[in-house]
Amino acid sequence: DWNSGNVIAEQVAKIQAQVGTGKVICGLSGGVDSAVAAAIVHKAVGDQLVCVFVDHGLLRQDERRQVEEDYVKATGVRLVTIDAVEQFETALAGVTDPETKRKIIGREFIRTFEKAQADLIAESREQDGDPIRFLVQGTLYPDVVESGGGTGTANIKSHHNVGGLPEDLTFELVEPLRALFKDEVRAIGRELGLPEVIVGRQPFPGPGLGIRIVGEVTRERLDLLRKADAIVRAELTEAGLDQDIWQCPVVLLADVRSVGVQGDGRTYGHPIVLRPVSSEDAMTADWTRLPYDVLAKISNRITNEVEGVNRVVLDVTSKPPGTIEWE
Ligand code: XMP
Questions:
Q1: How much distance in Å is there from the Cα of 106 to the middle of ligand 1?
Q2: ipTM of this model?
Q3: In 295-306, which positions are buried (b, 16+ CB within 10 angstroms) versus exposed (e)?
Q4: What kind of architecture, by CATH, is found in domain 212-314?
Q5: Whose alpha carbon is nearest atom 16 of ligand 1?
Q6: pTM of the shown model
Q7: Nucleotide-binding among the record's keywords (predicted)?
């Protein structure tokens, strides 16, 4: 029967057989899948693995530190962080359309990751003539089924004009989670001693907070949203509600202003939307009936602690017709 210790031992042996003395690279997203995949590979081949983490500035409060400190301490992986905050800020300037934001964020992400990859490959080749030939992916069983079966290699073409990458570089994929479901991945992560903040993490979209600001994405708005989001997460955890919630996007309506009153004066601030949903698979969802006292505390804290926000509103739409995210 299923046992996380057995799965780990099995995968470790399999990875060692596949990789031998080869070098391996893995992109960490901050999410649970890539974190667990990298940890298993590290257990199998140690410092033959190097991980890359791109900070695009659209992360939530503390996420970078959790990867750089907590995760690295728990696993011992070699980590290279790429600080791309300014690059993404520049690329997103003036953009308000959600799909355009997604395209820009995806494009910049691939560029940044491939540039880091090319640098590491060059460095590795210089050291001992052995380029990196293996790429770890946190593919889960549901992803395998959805995409209709097996791959095995990834063709990374250097059409992004980053320079340094061979014309048509082929990586062999290492996918230790291919037979697993999400809850099994979490169990394995815990067995491997990964931090609970990473293993227990709710789904978070790749474009991050970039698609939770309705309007243009700016550094000030990201800072504001990060504060509000951190308050919501802390209060939901404090109230013991994490198990009832699939995810709770916190959205800044940056293009909307409304009148409020604070102290002696009128304010003209932005609304923050709470979007707590319960779901099995994100295909459909219902809005989570949060206790009023928890909502009251969140609202008080946000309006008191987050400058520029004078209203907190609750989204009571199911999916369909609403989507989970606002953009
Ligand atoms: P929606 O908003 O479509 O979201 O109901 C369903 C699930 O997908 C996530 N989501 C994304 N994930 N890139 C991602 O990696 C995206 O562009 C994106 N948009 C939505 C969303 O958080 C939810 O879990």
A1: 14
A2: 0.99
A3: eeebbebbbeeb
A4: 2-Layer Sandwich (3.30)
A5: 205
A6: 0.91
A7: yes
